[in-house]
Design a protein that fits this description.
By secondary structure, the chain is α+β, with helices and mostly antiparallel strands. It has a single domain, classed as Nuclear Transport Factor 2, Chain: A. The chain is about 30% helix and about 45% strand. The chain contains 4 helices and 8 strands. The strands form 2 sheets. The protein has a 6-stranded mixed β-sheet with strand order 4-3-8-7-6-5. A two-stranded antiparallel sheet has the order 1-2. A hairpin with a 3-residue loop joins β3 and β4. α1 packs across α4. The longest helix has 19 residues.
Length: about 170
Amino acid sequence: MLAAVIILATPFTINQLRQNQMKADEESKATTPLRKSAERGEAIEGDTPGNTIQDLVRAWNQGRTNEIAKMFASDGVLIIPARSQIQSRAEIEKAILEGRAGVLKDTRLSNTVENVSQSEVDHATVKGTYQLEGIKIFGFTKSATGSFILHQIKHQGQWLISRAELTKGSQD
């Protein structure tokens, strides 16, 4: 997902992204409260650890990066190969905004969930693979694949990502 190199964006570009996200958020509030699968558009009832990755993929593909940041606990951690460790929801949002303003601008994310395990009522782990298509570097369009592990906690009835670990597989 964020395995590509994240480059710095101008404040103007980041502000444009934030304005677009606020508009998209307002539009999404008018939609049905049921979640939809990012891959198939099917309605999914209830909040489960596996839904978090589907929501993340949908938000990424719709350019709603602030929604992705809200999926993390306030002290959440994102570990990506290109920048090692990013801590806190605010820093995660900043990194995602910068990436989406740069080489990750028009990318499309897909995933496969391989395993969901719940060690306690309020702790879960989701493992799988991802593919990020449309990375633009020096005029070439690339894709990247890898695996992910999402460690989640249930906070006030909602599953939040406490730690997301992304590993880089191959790049086309």
